[in-house]
Amino acid sequence: MPVRRRSESAALFLGTAVLLAAAWVVGRHPAPSFPLFQRPTMEDFAVQDMGAVVNGARRLGADLAFIELLQYYGSPGNANPHHPHGRRALASRTIEEIEERETSHVHIHLGHEGEADSTDRPSASFPELKDYAFRAGSLDPRFHFPYLFTAGALAFNLNRVDEALAVLDDGVRGDPSFWRYQLYAGAIAYRKKQDMDKAISRLEEAVLDPECPSMVKNILANIYRKQGNFKRVAEIYLDMANSRDKSYASFAVDRLKELAARHPAGK
Fold first, then answer.
1. Which backbone phi and psi does 194 adopt, to 5 degrees?
2. Cα distance between residue 141 and residue 177, in whole Å
3. pLDDT mean over 210-225
4. What is the pTM assigned to this prediction?
5. By CB neighbour count within 10 A (0-12 exposed, 13-18 middle, 19+ buried), where does 35 fall?
6. If both were cysteines, with which of 17, 29, 190, 215 could 198 make a disulfide (CB 3.0 to 4.6 Å apart)?
């Protein structure tokens, strides 16, 4: 057999083997199945979300929805009930009160300040945050992070415990086997009852989870800081310093330096 024909045969054999291997891998890992998509959760994103569904890209659509959730929560202007995205806000406070309170926190979008003491936060802040979480979950119910992140923000940063529990309930409906929803719900319920010892116990269990948002870890650190347990605060910040979330990692490093300066012995 000529050398050229041998090369062609070898290439054909190799190509066939690759295709068979790919088919075997695909067969063992079928595409994820999603429940029936009822209707878009937020009218402003209806075209975008329906496009993701029609094109078989619901997981990608959920990723984009979560990014937009972070953008919404990361913009202090959205805390204003008169903002275009604040149509359903409570009218119990004036715009001046809300702007004064919200803009006083430089890092509000990360919840760097006051996460464990949020009773003075206006309830109108970020009025559509819950809807953003529902939107991401409607596209991919097994995308757990938007639910966990939003529930933590609502309960511990914005003092809207009932909405936080509603977010977790929606998550449970989409994926009942994800036990962490119940864990977070327990911590939030204890927070509502002001039973901080039990809330701390739940949060300590939560931070062991590799998927635990850095925001929740910071909530626990703030609770310990108020109690004067600076050794545990330092441990939590050290863990956060290794986070893939660069904003929280940088924040944690700054706080560790601050702790070292104020409490050299770690007490």
1. 60, 25
2. 12
3. 87
4. 0.60
5. exposed
6. 190
